[in-house]
Amino acid sequence: MNKSVMIADDHTLMLEGLARLLSTEFEVVGTAPNGRALLEQAQQLKPDVVVLDVGMPELNGIETAHRLVKMLPSVKIVFVTQQLAPAYLHAAFAAGAKAYVAKQSATNELISAIKMALEDRFYVTPHAGAEAARLSSLHPKQNPAEMFGTKLTPRQREVLQLVAEGKSTKQISASLGISPKTVEFHRNSLMDELGLRSIAELTRFAVSQGIVNS
Q: Which of 14, 146, 152, 198 has the most CB atoms around its CB within 10 Å?
């Protein structure tokens, strides 16, 4: 029986292309346009493998991966992305990834990377350069431990991403299932904690952290 795979990417053409590619070797049981939708489906479908991008709306891929491994400890996580800087690679593997594939070479790399992940082996795209051979070394100008708002709570990171994406208090409230007052509390506490004074500054911080795409 083929192993089951779920795919998440916010670009429809990419999502469809990956589904076609992987259906030749695996059972594609679901697709999702963002991290939040992926988590909802994965809880029901319990796939063997999840393929996802780093930059996605609603909930980015790094945050999604952290939650996936808690929800489904046996799932194999494979990133397919254009983000090849060392900080992103370190954050992905720290979140529980088994493989990291470049989008531009997914046709050639992805199936092999998934098979390696299923064997509990790690894979890093050659497009990552020297980092593929030495994941243990850090980028001298960017410590991955300081990326993706890791000093913030998961709820704060959720609110920060949605604020940075331009969502209103009402929209964030509906998306997270919390009251508007709670949203305002989290937003204000973020500003206080980070020493920021406006939504624009929060947005710039979220971009600098890789929480949202620029």
A: 152
Cβ count within 10 A of residue 159: 26
CB of 56 closer than 8 Å to CB of 64: yes
The partner residues of 126 in beta bridges, in order of sequence, read none
Tokens of 124: 């890093």
Position 143 scores a pLDDT of 43
Sign for the CA dihedral angle at 23, 53, 119, 68 comes to negative
% of the chain beyond a pLDDT of 70? 89
Burial class (CB in 10 A: 0-12, 13-18, 19+), 54: buried
The domain limits of the chain are 4-132, 149-208
Q: What is the CATH number of domain 149-208?
A: 1.10.10.10
Instruction: Indicate the length of the chain as a whole number.
Output: 214
C-alpha–C-alpha distance, residues 61 and 194, integer Å = 23
d(CA 110, CA 92): 16
Is 4-132 CATH 3.40.50.10860?
no
pLDDT beyond 90 at 10: yes
